[in-house]
Amino acid sequence: MRQAKILGVGMQLPERIVTNLELESMPELDTTDEWIQQRTGIEARHYTAPGESGVDLALPAAQEAIEKAGLTPDDIDFIIYATLSPDYFFPGNGCFLQDRLFGDRPVGALDVRTQCSGFIYSLTTADCMIKSGLYDHILIVGAEIHSTGLDFTRRGRDVTVIFGDGAGAVVAGPAPGDQSGILTSALYSEGKYARELWTEYPASCATSRLSHDILDQGLHYPKMNGRMVFKHAITRMSEVTHEVLNKTGHTVDDIDVVLPHQANLRINQMVAAQLGIPEKKFVNTISWTGNTTAATIPICMYDALKNGRLKENDLVLLVAFGSGFTWAASLIRW
Ligand code: UT7
């Protein structure tokens, strides 16, 4: 069976940078730069301009990934688009991106809704499609707009300070030979914890999807049991890392680079300690991006490539945890 590998990576962040100090200057939010930095490692994040959509961010990231892969849009057979913040309730963002990228050429598009693990779920889906021979070149996007849906009052400050907007994209395709590429992946969900990190409304299962009462109570904002998410993240990210290593006959010492989800710098430091992997092998972008959920890993990958931290033949671990709960890992021979 042929292997699949990542051929090109792209990234797009909105122009506007929002520092912790800007958040600190909002009296109703009641937060400080010191608290945010100490508890999360975040110094700044990016917010979209009014009217700028998720697909507006995804498009240049996708174009860059296609170009870096040495391909043109005509070579792309399928789109997988991971986001928890689609531009509209329906249709999915993949359809809007198909229009912007390919115009009159119909291309299949699948939206993936597994939040912070969305990129790894998408990559794994692409890996299987390429390995099976169904498609050759698949565009995988992780893109989010959080800033238009955050509660900028004290009630929502724990969630609001951690999220940022952004997009990352990769193109995956067949790997020449069988030594490089995506080696294995593991994907999990545990829905009993779904309400520990979620946005309840608008809800199709409610009598009224949205009401003035819902808005007044702020039930349309994301809610998180931060401490519980934090604890589960460390356990599950470590566990799933051991699983992909065991499946491929590797040990933690074999890992050259870790591209982890960027939810909280302290989570990644604790995962590094628990696994016994030196922190210097972890690529972290959270200080300048905040948490961009499905976009975090491709952004991290982009940053690692740009800074020469990701080299041919490296053994690379992707690992994520988030809302659902969902968690996932992939092991790649770069
Ligand atoms: O990507 C999705 C997955 N998400 C995650 O993995 C996030 C996991 N959780 C976390 O990263 C952390 O739980 C947070 C950064 C969200 C919160 O940090 P924490 O150390 O768990 O704080 P906490 O929620 O236990 O709150 C400690 C204190 C509370 O005050 P009191 O009750 O001790 O007086 C909070 O009200 O910090 C207060 N607090 C804040 N203070 C200033 C909470 N948020 C803020 C804030 N600014 N933004």
Word description of this protein:
The protein is α/β, with parallel strands linked by helices and 334 residues long. The protein has two domains: 4-174, Thiolase/Chalcone synthase (Peroxisomal Thiolase, Chain A, domain 1, 3-Layer(aba) Sandwich); 181-333, Thiolase/Chalcone synthase (Peroxisomal Thiolase, Chain A, domain 1), CATH 3.40.47. It contains eleven helices and 13 strands. It has helices spanning 20-24, 33-40, 54-68, 93-102, 118-132, 157-160, 212-217, 226-248, 265-275, 286-289, 296-306, and strands at 4-12, 16-19, 44-47, 78-82, 108-112, 138-144, 166-174, 181-189, 197-198, 223-224, 257-260, 315-322, 326-333. A hairpin with a 3-residue loop joins strand 12 and strand 13. Helix 3 (54-68) crosses helix 4 (93-102) and helix 8 packs across helix 9 (265-275). The radius of gyration is 19 Å and the shape is globular. It binds oxa(dethia)-CoA. Oxa(dethia)-CoA binds at residues 31, 35, 39-40, 116, 157-158, 161-162, 226-227, 229-230, 233, 263-264, 267, 291, 293, 322-323.
Key words describing this protein structure:
single chain, 334 residues, alpha/beta, Peroxisomal Thiolase, Chain A, domain 1, 2 domains, 5-stranded mixed beta sheet, 4-stranded mixed beta sheet, 11 helices, 23% strand, binds oxa(dethia)-CoA
Structural class: alpha/beta
Oligomer: single chain
CATH topology of the largest domain: Peroxisomal Thiolase, Chain A, domain 1
Distance between the termini: 18 Å
**Total number of β-strand segments?**
13
Percent of residues in helices? 25-40%
Mean pLDDT level: 97
CATH H level of the largest domain: which superfamily?
Thiolase/Chalcone synthase
List SSEs in N-to-C order.
EEHHEHEHEHEHEEEHEHEHHHEE
Strand order of the largest sheet: 1-7-6-4-5
CATH architecture title of the largest domain: 3-Layer(aba) Sandwich
Please tell me the total number of domains: 2
